[in-house]
Amino acid sequence: MQADNFEEYDDPKGYDSENEMYKEDIPFLMKWAAKTDGIIIDLACGTGRVTIPLANKGYKLIGVDIHKGMLAEAKRKAENLHLPIEWIEQDCTNLHLNIKSNLIYTVGNSFQHFLSNKEQDGLLESVNRHLKLGGIFIFGTRFPSVEELLQPSTEEYWKTYIDKETKNTVDVYTISDYDPLAQVQHYITIRREKNIEGLMIGEKKTNIRLRYVFPREMERLLSAHGFEIVSVYQDWNKTPITAKSTEMVYVCKKTGDLSC
Fold it and tell me: Which terminus of the chain, N or C, has less C-beta within 10 A?
């Protein structure tokens, strides 16, 4: 992952305020965890949004992230829970954990943070290296639909959330620009904070780049790195994928080791 693409994550507590209510992926992963023996690896774990609920159910987790601040917040949230989590600061494209797992996952559309072919290769090589034969790799990524890629370059309203510390309302807007040669969407995210009277008291802008992968391209990419696609859905409720999907959820099985 590129170190200049982390602005969205430099405020871990703000990130949690905006995203902690998203729980759709947790029941799905719980079902796979129940079928799994041994340690589960959460790649790009962030502040532990999924890591901590799984560990609360008694599963042994390793949470890996490259962002020191996000990982520190994850540790803080888990420190009084006495959970079986090992937090590790590493680059997921060059992972060295000295273990093999039966289940590795990365959620929150983290797959899109690996912008280049080299980074995608590094991630999938790392996952293959740390999965046992027949082990499962689960991840989600946004579907590269026309509506997703060709968003207006003007400021567009996205969503509203409540900051959990200030209790103020935050309205979120985005400006996007898609580069079809790189298959990368450039986003400017604008957050406007309003107090209880509805007056704007602050504005913050961040930049992020996200890589998009098309379904047929993903099939080739996964196959080349020793994975068989077991299932692909348009959401975490196992809804079949269609041309109008907004998300792709992949369940993959390791079918072989990669040659050196």
Answer: C
- What per-residue confidence (pLDDT) applies to 165? 83
Mean per-residue pLDDT of the chain: 93
Structure tokens at 75: 């540790």
List the chain domain ranges.
3-143+213-254, 146-211
pLDDT of residue 136: 98
Q: Looking at the predicted structure, is the pLDDT value of residue 4 above 80?
A: no
Q: Is the pLDDT of residue 6 over 90?
A: no
Question: SS3 for the chain, per residue?
Answer: CCHHHCHHHCCHHHHHHHHCCCCCHHHHHHHHHHCCCCCEEEECCCCCCCHHHHHHCCCCEEEEECCHHHHHHHHHHHCCCCCCEEEEECCHHHCCCCCCEEEEEECCCHHHHCCCHHHHHHHHHHHHHHEEEEEEEEEEEECCCHHHHCCCCCCEEEEEEECCCCCCEEEEEEEEEEECCCCEEEEEEEEEEECCCCCEEEEEEEEEEEECCCHHHHHHHHHHCCEEEEEEECCCCCCECCCCCCEEEEEEEECCCCCC
Report d(CA 89, CA 1) in Å as an integer: 13
Residue 16 has pLDDT above 90, yes or no: no
pLDDT for 15: 87
- Locate 29 and state its tokens: 């992963």
Please give the CATH architecture assigned to the domain spanning 3-143+213-254: 3-Layer(aba) Sandwich (3.40)
Evaluate whether 63 touches 51 at the Cβ level (below 8 Å): yes
- Percentage of the chain modeled with pLDDT above 90: 79
- Altogether, the residues listed in the chain come to a count of 260
